[in-house]
Amino acid sequence: MFHSSEFFIPFLFLLSFIYLLYKFIAIYLINRYYSQNVKKVLQERQNNIQSFLDRYSNVVEPSLQIEILSLTACELLDKIKSKQITSEQVVITYSLRAATIGLEYGLIGDVNFEDAISEAKKKDQDINEFDPIDLPPLHGLPVSVKDHVTTKGLRYTAGFMKCATLGKSPDDCNFIKVLRDNGAIFYVSSNLPQGIGSIESYNNIWGRAMNPWDRNRTPGGSSGGEAGLIASKCSPLGIGSDAAGSIRIPCSFCGIYGFAPTGRRISLKRTRNLRVHDINVAREINCSYGPMGKSVEDLILVSKCLFGKFTDVDPDIPPLDWNEEKYQKAFLKKKRIGVIYDDSFCESFPANRNVIMEVAEALKRKGHEIVLVTENWTEEFVLTGLPVMQSHGMASNLMKTLEGEMPESFYRLQVLLSYFPNVVLKFFGFMAKFVGEARFGKILGVLVDRNLDEFYKAVFKKEILKDKFADFWIERKLDALITPVLPFPAIKHGDAELLQGLIGNTFIYNIMGMPAGVVPIRKIREDEQYYSTRFKDMAAKKLKSLVDGIKGLPVGVQVATWNFNDEGCLALMKEIEEEFKYHDFPKI
Fold it and tell me: Residue 273 and which of 203, 229, 480, 583 are 20 to 30 A apart at CA?
């Protein structure tokens, strides 16, 4: 007797095979198409670089180049305005460095050297025609900028191959426009992770960024290319973005200074490639753009140019100008400063712990009161903040945005898990603790797809946590908190997938909307090349594997203050800088 099931099951398998074959061919073809477009973009960039090198390689004397590269942004501006050097010489010098060292280390994105030099010539003419006092603060200074921070004349890819065909931006986002109006010259963009969502900067357009201190390690992410450019003296001053530590982590890995201002004090609007779900992230997690440089004074210079300057272009930003009186008074006040050495979610490497102690001792000698904080905040903020930041669960928004492009290695586990329903993910998270992966299980358990009602429940939970942290701060009468940036130094390429869940130290201050910055302190010593932890999971094994070769890597501290007290945060960072005077750069 004829049974339809005899044909249905084979037919179902056939349909499945055809569908999978279709998906495979579609992915192959779309990636081939993307790759062809990327090749054109890279060839165009290489042609521009070669044309620039042919014209300008011998224009600036080597001795002058060495002097220019040794100066901070503030020192460069003083010399430009006093006509000791020209803006054109500075732009050429840094463009040469970016076109060679920056390219070799995978730190650069797009370039706009020729337009930058033309602009520099005009700035030099202005210096001859006007009183330097009347010129804007950043007049004639070349500034690099993270790829996705929309800048006229530069591509804005966010590390997605599909964006290679968008061309160069015809205009500036609000943030960049304010800096350009203050005299900045934008000449190069910097590398970043695919999708701006990792602590390693690597994508299928600009390639893999390498740490100038050690090629086998990443400069961090997501503003990794920017930190690498400054550390390798390919840029005197840079602009990054920060939604969970993306300025501070790379600054820590590369040994430079960085500052993520109060999120509500600067404007992100008119950034062209913010995706729909990023809007909620920017509002709920307090994403911020901020400066990265060779000194705290450079960070202050940019902050003075930015604060209070968005009133006419962004109604969401309060008109709070830089308060010089508040900044100066901060030096006179004996502060009550909390310090955190470790947390229960991830113990610090010896060097990361030791520099906190050294900074605490230095500040104590200056008369500040040091308060040891033992409360564990990082785990709670990670497990509360991730459901808001990734409200659609494991990599689902990423896959939509990739539009067929293959995800990078630091996303692949997320992508694999994204195919499972919520109940399975929660089960995996529950079972993980029984196989020694309790930390991973906790993170896995909260990264599920949420509907609108569940999303706002996650937001409400986040607001309760913010109140709890604020109560802690107020009850302890803290003026500032000093912590490790991350519990570990620069990681090796390919390690981000396992370790980027341990970013709680930086994530706290985005969720709180508080300003936070990084001050490099010194290099890791030989006697600090070890790591001890009570954990025995995959992350612990990966962290132990980082130990070999960490001697000589930079290590710093994170400084955070109350919301809108950016002046106080930068003042404390300046105090720490003056105590330790770290301004070392790798010899490249």
Answer: 229
- State the chain's maximal CA–CA distance in angstroms: 101
Residue 526 Cα distances to 181, 256, 354, 485, 530, angstroms: 47, 21, 13, 21, 9
Does 18 reside within a domain?
no
Name the burial class of residue 130, with classes exposed (0-12), middle (13-18) and buried (19+) by CB atoms within 10 angstroms of its CB: exposed
Tens of pLDDT, residues 236-246: 999 999 999 99
Looking at the structure, do residues 230 and 106 belong to the same domain, yes or no? Answer: yes
| Rounded Cα distance, 513 and 473, in Å | 14
Q: What is the pLDDT of residues 411-428, one digit of tens each?
A: 988 888 888 888 998 999
Whether pLDDT at 11 is above 80:
no
Task: Looking at the structure, tell me whether residues 40 and 88 fall in a common domain.
Answer: yes
Q: Are residues 558 and 449 in the same domain?
A: no
At 517, is the secondary structure helix, strand, or coil?
Answer: strand
Claim: this prediction has a pTM higher than 0.90: yes
What domain count does the chain have?
Answer: 2
With beta carbons less than 8 A apart as the criterion, state whether 280 and 243 touch: no
Report the distance separating Cα 585 and Cα 230, nearest Å.
9
Q: Smallest Cα–Cα separation from 345: which of 484, 201, 494?
A: 484
Q: Looking at the structure, tell me whether residues 249 and 276 fall in a common domain.
A: yes
Q: Where in the sequence is the domain holding 443, given as residue range(s)?
A: 392-459
